[in-house]
Amino acid sequence: VEAVHLIADGKAPRIPQPKEGATYEGIQKKENAEISWDQPAASLHNWIRGHDKVPGAWTTIDGQVVTFYGSSLFDASVPAGQELAIKGASRPGLVTKNGLVVFGNDGKMVLVRNLQFEDGKMIPASKYFSADETTALELTEEEKKMAEDIR
């Protein structure tokens, strides 16, 4: 009660908090979340997961900023996939059926499941090379009849 009265009267002591021992890092900014590729896979994974969802760890692919989401360490043999050149990476990533596999400087792998482009569009990383393809929906005769009935 005494402390509340001191505050209300404007007489409470103001002691600045010392910086030593402080752990608060403040709000991360997107420009500080760029991925540095010259580190082991575990550090890459920690960086990506540490920035997941906000602000999102990012890199440049084909001249475009791409943000990585949903990483996990990948402890298996190198999977089959289509190579993807990543700016600054010593080795190209692999677009596989499970996602994008990227390599640390220790040769170990990290699997990234989702990618987001500058325009805000998010896709599964496994669909990177098919992101621009659109397929037409083809209905069977029975489905066409049902569509007409619904109309």
TrEMBL record:
<protein>
    <submittedName>
        <fullName>AL1L2 dehydrogenase</fullName>
    </submittedName>
</protein>
<dbReference type="GO" id="GO:0003824">
    <property type="term" value="F:catalytic activity"/>
</dbReference>
<feature type="domain" description="Formyl transferase C-terminal">
    <location>
        <begin position="29"/>
        <end position="130"/>
    </location>
</feature>
<dbReference type="InterPro" id="IPR037022">
    <property type="entry name" value="Formyl_trans_C_sf"/>
</dbReference>
<dbReference type="InterPro" id="IPR005793">
    <property type="entry name" value="Formyl_trans_C"/>
</dbReference>
<dbReference type="Pfam" id="PF02911">
    <property type="entry name" value="Formyl_trans_C"/>
</dbReference>
<dbReference type="InterPro" id="IPR011034">
    <property type="entry name" value="Formyl_transferase-like_C_sf"/>
</dbReference>
